[in-house]
Amino acid sequence: ELLESRKRKRKPNFDIEKDVVSLWEKMRQRNIKAEDRSRIVSETLAKMKGKMVQMAMSHSCSRVLQSCVKHSQEAEKNEVFQELRPSFLDLCLNTYACHLALRMIDNAKKDQLQQLLSILHGNVVRLLRHPTGSAVVEHAYHAASGSQKQELVSEFFSPEFRLFRNITKGRIKEMLSDEPAAKRKTVLEHMTLSIQPILEKGIVDHSIIHRVLVEYLSIAPMSMVSNIVDQLSGPLLVRMLHTADGAKLGVLCVRHGSAKQRKKIIKALKGQVLKVARDDHGYAVLLSVIDVVDDTELVTKASMQVIMSELATEIRELSVNKYGQRLILHLLAPNIPRYFPAELLKTLKSPVVACAVSSSKTTVDTSEKGDDECGDVNDGDDNTESARISKKDPFLRRTELLSKSGFAQKLVEACATNAGELLRSPLGKDVIYEVARGGVDGIMLKATPEGISSVHKAIADLAALPKDKKTEEEHVLEHYHASRTIRRLVLDSSCHKLDGSSESFAQMLWSLALQGRCTTWARGHSAKVVAAFRDSEDPAVRRVAKSEINSLVDSGVLEGRKAKATSADAAKK
């Protein structure tokens, strides 16, 4: 009683809080009937009417009000919204009430959301510097339409610029293209003053911050770009890789950071590589590390367990993951449009932000001489850009990454052991294909020729299994993805013939699986594999299969033309 008496004196709404908490205990039971819960919700809201703001900021009653909003009728939701709306900013800054602010955004109708965004207008930057306020702004950003998002982002621009320009569409770079230098400088200075406190506090998890930083770096001179890269290089960057704009920032930091900054980024990735590799956006940063970091010892050093060492622990899982397999393919066949989206390749090849324009019209000059002294950049010349960012030959870098870390050996072992699964996988098939063909420029043939031979043997052994054998999985020659992958390997067989070996993959496949059995495989998906021997550019492959394939064509079992005569056959005639 004494304790309650003291609380009653300290808390003006103590009796109401006690009553509503008691009602909440009944309301939140799982086995309660819907009509009983609705009645209790109405009773609870009636008790809190006129005092909802204080209730929302109370440790004990905040969750009560959240539950009421969740289970209330539409009319009751509107009443709660109208009472809390005038104090929405205060709710955003309160540790307990911020959760109710998030629920208000979730439940808001189109006109109500616009009202909440109007309340945030003029306060976005201030809220983003606050731990709980930033979470509310981020939630509102995700709920907003495109034009509303642009309005939130424009809070970082100068007030005068927002007042006299239509900022609901386009990027800041385009908006400033026709503006005088003085106005561009004003916007940049305002953005710098707004962004720096947020970075200093380390509040960088939100996508709106990532969007603002991308906008900022698109107009900033090189000195300011370097400053931002230095601030982000390290643990902060890892927290930003889960968004598209955050991944772009990560790629920029890797591509245009110094050797010291790149080392900090790689150290920050320790223990997070596999998670980043499977992330929708974050994997692009690992691709950039593979592309430009000259210090391959840093990337492959076993004692640090970073990048290659961590990737090597789950090669099979990465090979069948949509984003993880792109890391493996980037080592084997970099920048091939078949494997990589055009937008990703554009991001990976993006020039230094401040140098991305050929004049200083868009990039802001903050000194008399100007910080942007990079000159023109030829967007069509990838080698020029890569040479400026990285000194080591790309092929040599990839070779070292594959060999020094032991990744190449583990990769061929995984492909040989899991050949059936990878061939049948719509994602894994590309990995085993590139491994079996030796990669672009024969990089895997140089790293582990014996391993490539073992992969060839594993595929041929699977193809040699009897057609009528009862198995849980479809035969590789009859499986949609597997048959087409094997067909590609046969057609490309002359390109990946092992050094010192007289037998290519196609010849091995023929001798182990198809010779004398073509009639069995001349229909369905497997017919494409048989026909590939006829269409191969390698004369040796056509020679071994010519007579059997031509007899199938003559008998009408295999559709299409006969095999071409080889030069040796033509000479005999």
Automatic annotation (TrEMBL):
* Compositional bias ranges of the Acidic residues kind: 370-384
Q: Which Pfam families match?
A: CPL, PUF
> From what superkingdom does this record's organism come?
Eukaryota
Q: Please give a single GO biological process term from the UniProt record.
A: regulation of translation
Positions of Pumilio repeats: 118-154
Check the record and name the InterPro entries matching this protein.
ARM-like, ARM-type_fold, CPL_dom, PUM-HD, PUM3, Pumilio_RNA-bd_rpt
Looking up PROSITE patterns in the UniProt record yields:
PUM, PUM_HD
Does the record carry Chloroplast as a key word? no
> What name goes with this protein?
PUM-HD domain-containing protein
Which organism is this protein's natural source? Answer: Selaginella moellendorffii (Spikemoss)
